[in-house]
Amino acid sequence: MILEIYKSWIIVLVLHECVHIFFVLLFGGKIGKVVIGNFFFIKIKKVAISPIVIHCFVTYEEGNGWSLFKKSLVLLMPAVVNIAMGALVSSDFLFIKIFSLFIGINSLLPIPYLETDGYLMLKEVQKTLHMKKIKISLAL
């Protein structure tokens, strides 16, 4: 039972990060590193894997001139996939269903301390609005 819970958690987290990677590569960005887990890493090129997985993350460089739309797809589509998976997966995979909904909803929340996808998206929107204000004031 414990192993089933742990395995489900890892599946949901890795899927979430794979969606980030997919959209970064789709839009011509570069993956910096992929970290799966928290302690005692085995490093293979840009990937670090740990047997103890509490969270995962991906660092990346944006492609040339990414619009706010592309940035939002990179940041928010993993949550959409998690929520869709949580809604559509059979209840035979109960833990995957629960964790998918949990990760999907929590990643949309703008929590600064955790630097969730929702928080990073909020920062991108603020930066875009700030740049538009600067352009407007320069035009005047």
From TrEMBL:
User: What superkingdom heads the lineage?
Assistant: Bacteria
Q: Where are the transmembrane segments?
A: 72-89
What are the alphabetically sorted keywords of the record?
Membrane, Transmembrane, Transmembrane helix
Question: What is the protein name stated in its UniProt record?
Answer: Peptidase M50
What organism is the protein native to? Listeria riparia FSL S10-1204
